[in-house]
DNA sequence: CGCCGTGTTGACCAGTTTCAAGATTGGTGG
DNA sequence: CCACCAATCTTGAAACTGGTCAACACGGCG
């Protein structure tokens, strides 16, 4: 199958390595119909700003709010005692997070760059879900999509080489942001974030990027910006073992 | 934190490497209260038997049923074109799977050993969920738990060494099955299954198991059975980098 | 009893990490 | 506006973990 096809392959058996980043499919708010639900939801929310680098909440903190990204990029991660970190998701405008966490947060959320968020009190959200079956349904769809994304990420971490990981990351990012061939792609997260997302070290991420640059597959005007010159060449790298 | 503690650490910041296997927490059926929901659900199901090794469904197959494991062990996996495989979950009695798949299945399900399953038609299930808010709610909880499990698995695949992976697998398996120190632990899956679950090769899994055996931390009466002699020593291996 | 699938072990190899040295970038204050 | 400093990024060389290839052991089944 080609990487340009959807997550569920047509041949019925093989999966591409792409799509690790939080799926662009089901949103809550931009969807057609059910505006009443969206409006009821929005009434519960408070707009807040978070400067880049600031922690929104940490693992084990009481989960009092759910959030929606309005602008900016959020990083969700888990830590182990000795400092190792696994970034589980990058979130972009329109994405919800922490809406199914009760009691304690199971992960850390931090601002990759300056953020605007909507914060929803968990209790009010719970009430809304109980009152409106559609809202409950839509959140269920959102979590289900999250499982699919996590599974795609598992494939990357379990079975992809460093080159495949980086290539699939770039493809997913460009599709998530909606950038075409030869347009400049914003890369809000640091090399360390990317490394921790892909289960690699900073150095390996750098080396692969340099290699792609030498092969004229990407340009790197600066660390926070990329130009994907040959997306198809990237995609080949994801399909095969190169 | 100690591995014996829950998934959400008390110190608020570090996560253990254990708990990669489908969580033992929320079940649907064995829970107290809501028996009416459970009974309504059960009326929709058909008991089916699947011999070991047989595929239940493959990636891309139309998703006509959801399933509940009655007895035996199910393996869920994703494949990439060149044959690489990532096992995303092992399921045990009481576990549901594929109840949020519409259209096509996003993964392959196979019988690790001889199975008894309950099969639920998706349409009837959908209807039940719409009629009974509690059922919807409980499925939502189930999917949310699945996300937590997948995240724990991501940490293992992204950041754990081979020894840590195998040790955390053994601990999770023993906790999932409910086996104490020095009791014989059934290991229904093959070395290849374990390797594909942990993102390793068969050989590495074997070597780590042999090493644990030499260190008198486990016994291996035969490939399908293990005795965990020193679970605390295993847990140390998961905490640290050993 | 022998065969075949699975598991185990060893020797060697490759990809990734580690350690270390510079290069760039961005932010701050003069 | 520029200079400086700290943080981030890049690159190189060496070490190491885990993978690959290959031989052999084990065990169940015909």
Describe this structure as you would to a colleague.
- 2 copies of one chain form a homodimer.
- Chain A is of the alpha+beta class and 242 residues long.
- Chain A has helices at residues 35-44, 122-131, 133-159, 162-177, 191-198, 202-214, 231-239, and strands spanning 46-50, 55-57, 65-71, 74-79, 85-91, 96-97, 108-111, 115-121, 184-186, 218-222, 225-228.
- Helices cover 38% and strands 22% of the residues of chain A.
- In chain A, helix 2 packs across helix 3 (133-159).
- At the A-B interface, strand 5 and helix 3 of A face strand 5 and helix 3 of B.
- Chain A binds a DNA duplex (30 and 30 nucleotides) through residues 161-162, 190-192, 200-204, 206-207, 209-210, 222-224.
Supply database-style keywords.
homodimer, disordered N terminus, 242 residues, 7 helices, 22% strand, four-stranded antiparallel sheet, globular
Number of strands of chain A: 11
Taking the alpha carbons of the first and last residues of chain A, their distance comes to 17 Å
Backbone CA Rg of chain A: 18 Å
Elements of chain A, N to C (H/E): HEEEEEEEEHHHEHHEEH
Counting copies of identical and different chains, the oligomeric state is homodimer
Secondary structure layout plus pairing:
Two copies of one chain form a homodimer.
Chain A: H1 35-44, E1 46-50, E2 55-57, E3 65-71, E4 74-79, E5 85-91, E6 96-97, E7 108-111, E8 115-121, H2 122-131, H3 133-159, H4 162-177, E9 184-186, H5 191-198, H6 202-214, E10 218-222, E11 225-228, H7 231-239
Antiparallel strand pairs in A: 1-8, 2-7, 3-6, 3-8, 4-5, 4-7, 9-11, 10-11
Chain A binds a DNA duplex (30 and 30 nucleotides) through helix 6.
């Amino acid at each position: 199958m080609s990487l340009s096809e959807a997550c569920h392959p047509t041949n019925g058996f093989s999966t591409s390595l792409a799509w690790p980043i939080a799926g662009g499919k089901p949103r809550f708010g931009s969807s057609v119909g059910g505006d009443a639900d969206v409006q009821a939801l929005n009434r519960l929310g408070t707009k807040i700003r978070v400067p880049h680098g600031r922690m929104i909440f940490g693992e084990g903190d009481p989960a009092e709010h759910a959030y929606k990204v309005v602008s900016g990029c959020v990083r969700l991660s888990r830590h182990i005692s000795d400092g190792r970190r696994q970034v589980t998701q990058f979130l972009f405008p329109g994405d919800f997070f922490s809406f199914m966490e009760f009691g304690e947060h199971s992960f850390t959320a931090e601002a990759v760059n300056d953020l605007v968020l909507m914060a929803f009190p968990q209790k009010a959200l719970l009430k809304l879900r109980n009152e409106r079956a559609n809202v409950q349904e839509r959140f269920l769809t959102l979590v289900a999509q999250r499982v699919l994304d996590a599974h795609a990420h598992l494939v990357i971490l379990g079975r992809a080489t460093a080159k495949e990981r980086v290539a699939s990351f770039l493809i997913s990012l460009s599709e998530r942001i909606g950038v075409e061939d030869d347009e400049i792609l914003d890369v809000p997260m640091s090399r360390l974030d990317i490394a921790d997302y892909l289960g690699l070290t900073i150095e390996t991420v750098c080396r692969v990027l340099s290699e792609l640059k030498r092969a004229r597959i990407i340009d790197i005007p600066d660390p926070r910006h990329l130009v994907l010159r040959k997306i198809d060449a990237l995609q080949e790298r994801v399909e095969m073992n190169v």
